[in-house]
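Task 17 of the worksheet. Students: predict the tertiary structure of the chain below and write it out as structure tokens. Keep your answer in the requested format; marks are given for formatting as well as content.
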Amino acid sequence: MSEFIEKNRDFGLTMALIDENMVFARSKIRDEVLIAAYGVDKQKQMTVENDVQLQRAIQEIPQSAQLAERARKLEPDFKK
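Model answer:
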């Protein structure tokens, strides 16, 4: 990579910039490989299955429903 950066200085790349964006770049490359091999639907499915934040949000849905219900019950008290 350092050789590529050296030969293509007009791109404005640095090793620090590449290191900073490595996780994002790997994710995008993975997405493109999955799309090429299995199609968009499978790529989206695998992306969702591996998204830790999304999986945590799905786990919290029952609690959010309970919280919303409690808020609805308290709402008349706040309007006074």
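Marker's comment: The mean pLDDT is 90. The chain has one domain: 2-79.
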